[in-house]
Amino acid sequence: MNIPDLPPPAQRLVIDQAALAANWRALADLAGSPGVAVGAAVKADAYGLGVDLVVPALRAAGARDFFVAHWAEARAVMAHAPAASIAVLHGVGNGPEAHFARATGVRPVLNSLLQVRHWLEAGGGPCHLMVDTGMNRLGLAPHELGDPSLGLLAIEVLHSHLASADEASAQNEAQLRLFCQCAPQVGAPRLALANSAGIALGRAYHFDLVRPGLALYGGIAHRSLADCIRPAFRLEAAVLQVRDLGAGDPVGYNATFRAPRAMRAATVCLGYADGLLRAFEGQAFLRHQGVILPVVGRISMDLVVVDCTAAPGLGEGDLVEVPWSLPQVAQASGLSHYEALTVLGRRLARVACT
Ligand SMILES: *Cc1c(COP(=O)(O)O)cnc(C)c1O
Q: Which listed residue, 50, 59, 156, 318, has the most CB atoms within 10 A of its CB?
C-alpha cells in the first residue's frame, strides 16, 4: 500500500537557521576568526535541535569542524558534511568502532592508550587526540604523552576540555598552563581547548580551533555572551479542544487544579514527552498572540491544559507557542540550559523557520 504524505504536524520545533548562523559568526568574532577555526559540537542531535537543519546552517556560515559523541551520531552528520570534518569525541573503544572509523574517514578522538592501540591495530590513519588536563573525565594523562605508540599516529588535532569555563575559576588557568606544556610533546598541527564558555575567557584559550556547542543553540554559557547570542528555536503546538469550566471543576490527572471561577480552558498537544517537563508545573505558561496562557493542572505525556480566559478568540487548531527563553526555563525549573535543550522530545517535527 502507498502511504500518503503526512498531514502538517500539530507540534513544531521551529529552527531559526539565521540565528544559528548569527551565533556562529558572533563566536567567530570573539575567537578572532579566520585565524581561529570555529567548529561546532553537534552531539545529541545538535543538542536536540536536529542535525538535519543545524549542520547545513552552520556549514553555510563557515563551520568546518563538527564534533559528536557517538559513531551513530557521526553517520547522521555525514549526510551533511564531509567525513574528514567530523570527529567522534568518545573515540574508538573496540575493533568494530575502529573499523567503522577507517571505512568512513570520520576521525576518532583517541582518549586512552588502549584506544590508541585499537586504532593502530585497525590500521591507524588521521585522528585526533584528547589529553586530560584536570577534568578527569576523558583523555590521556599528560604523563602518557611520551608513550612510543603515539609516534605512530597521524594526529590532526590535540584537544583538551575545560571543566569550569563558565566560572571565574583558577582551574581554567591551571588547565591552560598544563595544555601548553603538553602541546609540544605531541606536536599536532592544530590545538583546541575551548567550548562556548571557554571562548569568552579570551584569546589565550582559543589556540587554532574552538568547539562551541551550547552558545550556537542560544544557550548562555557565560554571562559575557548574553548580549551577542540569540535564541535559535521556538516551540509551537496546536489547540486540540477548548471548553468552559465552572467554578470548582477539576482539571487533569489527580485533579491538582480546580477552577477558582468560571473560565475557559484549552487543551494543547504538548506534554512531557515533548520536553514540557512536570518539573515546570506551577511555572509554565504558553502564549497566543501576545496573551499569556497559564498551564493549569498536571502536565500529561502528550497534553497540557491552559487557562485561555484571556484569549476569547482562541479555538481548535490554533497554534500556541512556548514562549520561554532558555534562561527563563533554567530559572523556573533548575535545569541547566544544556538539559532544557536536550529534553526536547524526539517526535517534535523540526522545521526551518521561513
Ligand atoms: C560538548 C562538548 C563541547 C561543547 O561544549 P559547550 O559547553 O556546549 O560549548 C566542547 N568540547 C567537548 C569535548 C565537549 O564534550
A: 50
